[in-house]
Structure formats: C-alpha cells, structure tokens
Amino acid sequence: MLIGLVGKPNVGKSTFFRACTMANVDIGNRPFVTISPNNGIGYVKIDCIENEFKVKCNPQKGYCIDGKRFVPVELIDVAGLVEGASEGKGLGNQFLDDLSSADALIHVIDISGETDAEGNETRSYNPINDVQMLENELDLWYLGILKKVWKIFSRTLKNTKQDFAKAVANQFSGLKVRENDVKFVLLKNNFNTNKSSEWSDDELLKFSHALRHLTKPMIIVANKFDKKNSKANLENLKNAYPELIIVGCSSDFELALREAVNHNLIKYIPGNNDFDIIGNLNEKQKLGLENIRKFLKENGSTGVQEVLNKVVFDLLKYIAVFPASANKLTDSKGNILPDCFLLKNGSTALDFAFTIHSDLGNNFIKAINARTSKAVGKDYKLKHRDALEIVTR
After folding, report:
1. Is 0.85 topped by the overall pTM?
2. For the domain 321-392, what is the CATH superfamily, name and number?
3. Which residue positions in the chain have pLDDT lower than 70?
4. Rounded to an integer, what distance in angstroms lies between the CA atom of residue 130 and that of residue 76?
5. Which of 3, 57, 255, 378 could link 50 by a cystine bridge, Cβ 3.0 to 4.6 Å?
C-alpha cells in the first residue's frame, strides 16, 4: 500500500509527512522546498489483541504502546502541485508521475487561508480554491493519458469489437487501474461504450473524473487548523464538498509532540487527546506544550493519526489481521504476536495465507480462529482484528 501526499507548495505538506514518519526532510516557509519525492513509513493505529491473550507483543514491524498497535504503511511526499501541473507547469508532469503507484491520496491544504495559489504568504485566501484546483488537475492528468490515444483507440474498438473495459485498463495500467474499476465506472455512470467514438470532450472528462475518484481516492487535510480563521474556513469547505472526508489538523503540533517524546520530555501516544510531562521543561517549552494541550482538549487530537486511519480503514477499506494460534502466540524466534497484516475488506482466509507467504496459500488446508479455536475454511471472510492460524498440508 502506498499513500501519496499532494498539495500546492508551502501548506505544511512536508511537516505533515515528517510528523507521520519522523523522517529527516527539509521543511521551510517558502514554495517548492520539496523537489524530489520523499518516501517514508507512517503507521495506522488499532487496538492490539495482546490484552485479550494476556501477553505483551513484540512487533517486528511497527510498534505497540499501552495496547495500541501501530501498523506500517508507506507514504510518498511529492513536490507542490500548482494550477497547470497537468500541462507540465512547475514540473507538474514529473510530480504527477511520482503518484502513479499511489493507492490513495492525502491532499494537504492551508485551512487558515494564509497561503495563496502559488504558495506565497497572504491573508484571507479561500482554501476552497485549492481543492477545486487539485481536483481539476488530477482529472486533467487522467484525461491527458486517455486523449493521447483516444482517436485511434476508439476507432479500433469500434472496428474490432475489443472489450472497452479491458482496453482502458491496459492504457491506465501504470496507475493501478483494473478492468473491474473501468466496468464499475461505466455501469454507475451509464456510459454508452457502443458509441465511445462519439463521446464529447465533456463526456471524456466526466469519465476521467469518475475513474480517477475511484482509483485514486482522496482525503483532505485541513492543515494549520490551530491558526486564526481556520474553523470558519473548515466549515465552509465541508459545506462545499460534503462528499469528501475532511479532517482539521495541526501537523506542527503533532511534530512538536513527537519530538518531545524523542527527547524524553513527555509520554504521548499518537492520536490521543493528552500527554504526560515526564522531563524537565523550561518556561518556553511549558508554554508551548500547554498551548498544544489546549488544542488537543478542544479538538480531540492533532488530526494527523486520524487522517492516516481514515485513509486506510475508511477510504481504502482495509482491515488488520493477526497471524496467531490459541496455543502458540510466538514465531520461531520467540517473538510474541510479531506480525499484523493489512488486507482489503472482503479478503478470505486463503487470501490471508497468501499474504503471509505463497507456500501457506498453496498448501492451505484450513485456518483456526485463535479466539474460539474453531476451524474455518478458505472462503471465510476476515474481520477486523481477526487472529488466525493457518494450517497446511
């Protein structure tokens, strides 16, 4: 799974990325600080099953704090996208290509309205413009890929009776578009493929928009929510785009908390609404942390962890599953509950076996529910936080 961070320059995208990953990236109050894409690991947060089994887990990937398991996901932070990116402005084509393998997108905007369309400091800018801009540029990105071959493509389909969905999926294969995705878009929007050669530019754009929304779903991060005017701007944005998931967020505050944890000044679990001071603080640090605490109490969290969880579990509809046996919770090296896997909702026990290792899938006999000790077959539909042992021949 790969999640792409997008947005115009200077909205705090790299700060958000660093708050998620603690990667050492350049952060600055100026446009186009990021040029080359940054890759890192963020984490989704779930309730670990360790307490149910009365053990303390030893994750091999990710970590666990006070019964909260953090499961890794890959993030990519690309350079800021501006209007005209789909036509190459600001090296836009290169930056869009960096997103081709992303399963979902996080659009970071400055909800305070203190950054203009080009990423320069300003006042009273309307953040709704940024959502409109990026929605349009991403649609034009898909449309550009389609129109490169459309005339020859549609004529060939008409003359040879090739399958439309399969042909379109092949054209978009580099963007992780599947044949079933195309079929879903065609059916939901009542596109007439028999007359595809007669589609107007508006119909091509409508098709590109629907395909892009399905295959690159996006969540909006209303960043800098700790600043003046942010609450009113957020309400206006939610009213303008009721169909989108929009989360108020302060990546500055989250990064400050995580750095304080690294310096042993506080105890803090990402996504929580409070923290405990455990180190010696100077007056400036005390004042800064109390300001953050006030924000947490008012909003429930900084929003950063909420965004990652919503992308994975709400937008992409994944679930977390543990390999575990009721009688043996350790791996060959003695690590307790070392693994936790993220799978698409609707995955089966056999899918889970193949996810762990191809040999387990190829030699699958049954799975055993670690909670009930009951056997389930290969078609058993996995549930969030299931714990299963795979039995092979």
Report:
1. yes
2. Beta-grasp domain (3.10.20.30)
3. 24-36, 85-95, 158-162
4. 20
5. 57
